[in-house]
């Protein structure tokens, strides 16, 4: 652990946005155009104005991300200097905006979106629910990070309402399929990774190059229609049950802020192929997630329990020569731990609806009702001994809008 980071900005205790963090986002001041900023305490620094660099006047992080890791390090050091040295206060302070007075936007333009399935606990739970009487893990699960390609166009910023999707599903196992609003709308508490520097087609990205391509980390809720998913996912995997909405948090925490959060992942047995072996410097992360339903804490998923690391996900994503693009987003899949209170989806928390989740006041949930609001937050150890935060990703369920006819 290094010494405590310094700042002249007032940082409320527990804000998670201290000088060891400095997450990036896109904000629009009252009457102004969207631009890139860095959060500190309860304020956001306008980088275009403070640094005199027009790349930050863009409505997305992408132009800055494309500049690569050397520039990322340079800007982080300069921002830390501006906010940490009292001599720069007169210059920087006029460019700080109160967070409660700005609108937060989608922080980056999503190029491609890939969702993984990296939690052994989650995969085993869903295997038991979806494939009763069979081994909970598929034969390939411990040999590679399983994933699927999602829709970049349905990645939405935190706070965007989620319309209950319609699709085909079976009302019961012996019934023919019907089309209508999902009856099993679920959440997936996930961690997302944002690609900054692209790669060349045909050239896989090795584990050792993870930090040269990935800029930072955000929170993700990959909303799921479990009944639609269960009917459609054989043999090609998730499709309409997943592609209707994926919510992301407004802040991207740089990898540079997570040095103290790195940890060894669980033991892997059998050993994966050489391109996935990470015995040198593994990228397990000690992130503590919290999931709230209508304001009530329902789960505390631990990211440190994830079987596959983000570096392994990236290495596998590009193992066939697929190229990375600036703004690519890949997510971990549902984060779940071994305990019931650590499960990151309602399907697991209610065990497929057989064990309703009890909320304060006597309410029960198996899956989401119209009007329900879900919030996911997370913290991690900071390099100065503090807890750094990721903000939150929220969404409220709106009634379905079935097509006419």
TrEMBL record:
Highest taxon above the source species:
Bacteria
- Please tell me whether the keyword Magnesium is annotated for this protein: yes
The UniProt annotation places Mg(2+) binding at 222, 242, 246
Keyword Hydrolase listed = yes
Q: What cofactor is needed?
A: Ca(2+); Mg(2+)
Q: Where is the Fumarylacetoacetase N-terminal domain?
A: 20-107
**EC top class, as a word:** hydrolase
Q: Which residues form the active site?
A: 122 (proton acceptor)
Entry binding sites for substrate: 117, 131, 229, 233, 334
Q: What is this protein called?
A: fumarylacetoacetase
Name the pathway it acts in.
Amino-acid degradation; L-phenylalanine degradation; acetoacetate and fumarate from L-phenylalanine: step 6/6
- GO-annotated biological processes: homogentisate catabolic process; L-phenylalanine catabolic process; L-tyrosine catabolic process
- This enzyme's EC code(s): 3.7.1.2
Pfam families (alphabetical): FAA_hydrolase (PF01557), FAA_hydrolase_N (PF09298)
Kindly list the GO molecular function terms attached to this UniProt entry: fumarylacetoacetase activity; metal ion binding
Which keywords are on file for this protein? Calcium, Hydrolase, Magnesium, Metal-binding, Phenylalanine catabolism, Tyrosine catabolism
- Tell me where in this chain the Fumarylacetoacetase-like C-terminal domain is found: 114-397
Q: Which InterPro entries match?
A: Fumarylacetoacetase, Fumarylacetoacetase-like_C, Fumarylacetoacetase_C_sf, Fumarylacetoacetase_N, Fumarylacetoacetase_N_sf
Write out the residues that bind Ca(2+): 115, 188, 190, 222
